[in-house]
Amino acid sequence: MATAILLVAITVALYSLPEKSSEWLRSREMIRKLYLFPILLSAMWFGARGAAASTAFATMVCVGLAGNAWPAEVSSQVERVGEVAVFWLVGALSASFFEQQKRFIGQIEVANDNTLLALAAALDVREHNTGVHSQRVADYMLRLAREVGVRDKGTLDDFWRGALLHDVGKIGIPDKVLLKPGQLSEEEWAVMRNHPEVGARMLRKIEFLRGPTDIVLSHHERYDGAGYPRKLKGAQIPLGARLFAVIDVYDALTTDRAYHTARSHSDALTKIREMSDTRFDPAIVAAFVRIPFEELREIAKKNQTSLLFASPPVPSLHQVASVLSPGS
Fold first, then answer.
1. Cα 58 off chain centre by
2. DSSP states of 233-248 as a string?
3. Residue 186, class by beta-carbon neighbours within 10 Å (0-12 exposed, 13-18 middle, 19+ buried)?
4. Residue 91 · residue 51 · CB < 8 Å
5. Smallest Cα–Cα separation from 165: which of 130, 127, 121, 125?
6. Which residues pair with 276 in a beta bridge?
7. Given pLDDT bands bounded at 50, 70 and 90, which one contains residue 321?
8. Model confidence band, residue 313 (pLDDT cutoffs 50, 70, 90)
9. Quick check: bond before 229 cis, omega within 30?
């Protein structure tokens, strides 16, 4: 839009000059050179196609196809052709440069995300004996974010990275606390509750990870204000952290842990609904319930996890007796 406005503004300025005023000829040449700005902007924002479109428009004006008279003198004609050639040369070179920069930045982002995946997997192996928990909840997170209407790519990237690194602060928790099989003491819980702040301090030192810090710091806050570390309540809790709170509990319920076996999708939803308006934002719970089970199952399968829709029925005493006494 900005480039189109610039192109139109330059053209209007060019047409507003007197048609046959010799003293304005140099001004006309200067104004035509201003077409280089929208050409460069188009190349930067839209790549080769944008640069070509802006250059074609400037060419139409300069060669007389858009009402701007073609000069009669041969020297002026040669100069005008040179101007057009410069437009196309600048458009082509700038488009090539900016597209190379975008590819380079994309490669850096991929490398960064692969590094984060490796770090998250290492932390998962330490705590869960599996390297897929963090990536699974990050993928769940993206689906729930889209369900509540988040479309901005930068925000979605921050949400994915925040979910992936939600427990990065546990790198500072001693194994005797983190891996303790039984109940934690009050002193041990105090140590464990430090991990959101430890993780947030780590991420704030890295420029591209400052956005995900909200999730890392606030993913243990509760909607009713009884969470930690800052006891935030309701909308005070960042959206990403409110989304992730539902995802984290859902994943904990539907996967095998040291303290319980995996529950079914239906059982997990029942439990999450029970905690709506206390632990979770009710609007986010409602959005999560709307996500089809098949989509969640595909995400789990992609991350090497099975997901059961409903728990198998518990056999009756009569059925158990029939199995134990098949001849009766």
1. 37
2. -GGGS-HHHHHHHHHH
3. exposed
4. yes
5. 121
6. 280
7. very low
8. low
9. yes
More confident residue, 166 or 125: 166
Q: 157-176 b/e with 16+ CB inside 10 Å = b?
A: bbbbbbbbbbbbbbeebeee
141 within 8 A of 247, measured Cβ to Cβ:
yes
Q: Is 256 left (phi over 0), alpha (psi -120 to 50) or beta?
A: beta
Helix axes 25-33, 74-128, angle to 10 degrees: 20
Residue with the two structure tokens 């507003």: 16
* 279 three-class SS: coil
**Mean pLDDT score, 299-303:** 91
Range from 12-16, 68-72, 90-94, 263-267 carrying the lowest mean pLDDT: 68-72
Residue recorded with tokens 């319920």: 253
CB contact at 8 A, 232 and 242: no
Task: Tokens 């082509």: give the residue.
Answer: 92
SS3 260: strand
pLDDT of residue 226: 95
Of the candidates 250, 251, 247, 245, the one whose C-alpha atom is nearest the C-alpha of residue 232 is: 245
pLDDT tens per residue across span 251-296: 999 987 766 788 999 999 999 999 999 999 999 999 999 999 999 9
pLDDT of residue 281: 97
Long-range (24+ apart) CB contacts under 8 A made by 121-124 are 123/167, 123/168, 123/170, 123/171
